Structure formats: structure tokens, C-alpha cells
């Protein structure tokens, strides 16, 4: 790939477990730019609200969402999330917190707050940012927009493996049910629902190896940025 001379945004959106995180991380590594996992931000707030027993309503969000000090980083190839000095990077990866994140992400005050943080984190640098509304809301003018998807079985098998890595054995049907429920909620919500941006390149990676997926994304980036 030719050297990329100016700053640019690569927005990666798509449904649950479509491979967005693995792809985004690898692209950031190969392009030597910053990786931002916006799902981790919704997960961190979902975790905090559950832990405190706060309601997930607009009013409660306005009141409490700025209470915790949240820090996001990247360590040993993984998103690191620190909440009030506690490392919750692994705690936020459970099915319960995934659902809490999806629930809290419906609230407008939460979306406005986190979108602003996401824009601030990307000032004057190139980033690969993954989520549900990056190409549609956070960066509607992103140079590159990829909508990554895969069939439900492929996605569920990937998610099952992710759970296994954190010591959770969950039956495939349960994983499928969780993914379908969360996808429906993320796609049907009123505020910034998951949808394909008009100018996004959509690709289904069910039949592609990881390397093929990365190569294809790099081709798209090269074409759009140079
Ligand atoms: O990508 P993830 O599975 O870590 O995201 C968890 C939830 O957070 C997801 O179900 C919906 C929400 N989310 C969102 O609404 N907007 C984003 N940009 C990222 C995540």
C-alpha cells in the first residue's frame, strides 16, 4: 500500500459479532493509526448503571452518566477500560453487560455524550472506529465506511468462542438468541439505529478468511484515501 499522507477516518459498522473488532484492530495495526472501540464505551456505562442499580431512563442518564471517570486505552491487542481506577476490561464482555450496553445505548443523553467523546478522541489524527452509528452519525463524512456483516450462524460461533476465552461456556442456541435480540433492538431503536450508511461499502465475510477480510478492507481504504 502507498503511504497515506493525510488524516482520515475509517468507520466500521455492522451487527453483533460480524467481526468488526478483529478487523478494526488489525487495520489500525497495519496502518499504524488509532483504534477506537465505541461498543466498549456503551458497555462501560451499562456496567456502571447495573452495578449502581440506576434506572436506564433519560432522566437517570442525565443525572448519573457523567459520574464515573472512564478511561479507554489499548493494551496487549485489547481494548482496556478503566472505570474509577478499576480495570473492567474483562467484566464488560459478558452477555449481561452486552444487553445492558444495548439498553443504555437507546437513550438520547447517553448517545449525545458518547458521540461527543468519540469525536474528541479522534481530533487531528487518523482513526479506525467501530460501532453501530459511526458512518451514519459520528462521522457522516468519514473517508472510508465499511458495513461488515456475516450470517447468523457464523456470527454466533465467533461470539461463542469469545465467551469461551473469558471462561463462559454458552450453548449455541442461547448465543444465537442473544445476538438476534440485541441486533433487533439496535436496529429498531429510535435514536441512531444501526443501518447501512448510503455511501458505505457493504461486505459479508461469512465465507472469507480473516486475512481475506483484512485484504479487502485495505483495498477499499487505499482506493478511497489515495
Ligand atoms: O460492539 P459491542 O457489541 O461491544 O456493542 C455493545 C452495544 O452497544 C451494542 O449492542 C449497541 C451499543 N452500541 C451502540 O449503540 N453504538 C455504537 N457505536 C456501539 C455500540
What features would you describe in this structure?
- The structure is a single chain.
- The protein has 226 residues and is of the alpha/beta class.
- It has a single domain (9-225), classed as Rossmann fold, CATH 3.40.50.300.
- It has helices at 20-31, 38-52, 58-64, 95-104, 108-121, 134-138, 152-165, 172-188, 210-225, and strands at residues 9-13, 34-37, 70-75, 78-83, 86-87, 127-131, 144-149, 201-204.
- Helix 1 (20-31) packs across helix 9, helix 2 packs across helix 4 and helix 7 crosses helix 8 (172-188).
- It binds 2'-deoxycytidine-5'-monophosphate.
Helix-strand layout with pairing:
Elements: E1 9-13, H1 20-31, E2 34-37, H2 38-52, H3 58-64, E3 70-75, E4 78-83, E5 86-87, H4 95-104, H5 108-121, E6 127-131, H6 134-138, E7 144-149, H7 152-165, H8 172-188, E8 201-204, H9 210-225
Parallel strand pairs: 1-6, 1-7, 2-6, 7-8
Antiparallel strand pairs: 3-4, 4-5
Helix pairs in contact: 1-9, 2-4, 4-8, 7-8
The protein binds 2'-deoxycytidine-5'-monophosphate (DC).
Amino acid at each position: 500500500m502507498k503511504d497515506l499522507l493525510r488524516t482520515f477516518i475509517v468507520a466500521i459498522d455492522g451487527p453483533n459479532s460480524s467481526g468488526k473488532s478483529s478487523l478494526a484492530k488489525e487495520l489500525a495495526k497495519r496502518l499504524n493509526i488509532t483504534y477506537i472501540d465505541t461498543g466498549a464505551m456503551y458497555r462501560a456505562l451499562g456496567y456502571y448503571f447495573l452495578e449502581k442499580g440506576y434506572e436506564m431512563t433519560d432522566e437517570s442518564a442525565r443525572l448519573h452518566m457523567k459520574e464515573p471517570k472512564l478511561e479507554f486505552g489499548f493494551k496487549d491487542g485489547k481494548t482496556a477500560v478503566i472505570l474509577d481506577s478499576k480495570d473492567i476490561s474483562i467484566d464488560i464482555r459478558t452477555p449481561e453487560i452486552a444487553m445492558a450496553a444495548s439498553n443504555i445505548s437507546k437513550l438520547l443523553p447517553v448517545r449525545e455524550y458518547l458521540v461527543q467523546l468519540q469525536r474528541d478522541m479522534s481530533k487531528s489524527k487518523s482513526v479506525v472506529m467501530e460501532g453501530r452509528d459511526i458512518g451514519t452519525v459520528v462521522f457522516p463524512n468519514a473517508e472510508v465506511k465499511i458495513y461488515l456483516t456475516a450470517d447468523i450462524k457464523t456470527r454466533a460461533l465467533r461470539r461463542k468462542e469469545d465467551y469461551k476465552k473469558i471462561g463462559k461456556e454458552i450453548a449455541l442456541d442461547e448465543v444465537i438468541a442473544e445476538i438476534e435480540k440485541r441486533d433487533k433492538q439496535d436496529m429498531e431503536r429510535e435514536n441512531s439505529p444501526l443501518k447501512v450508511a448510503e455511501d458505505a461499502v457493504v461486505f459479508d465475510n461469512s465465507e472469507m478468511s480473516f486475512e481475506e477480510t483484512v485484504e479487502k478492507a485495505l483495498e477499499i481504504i487505499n482506493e478511497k484515501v489515495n
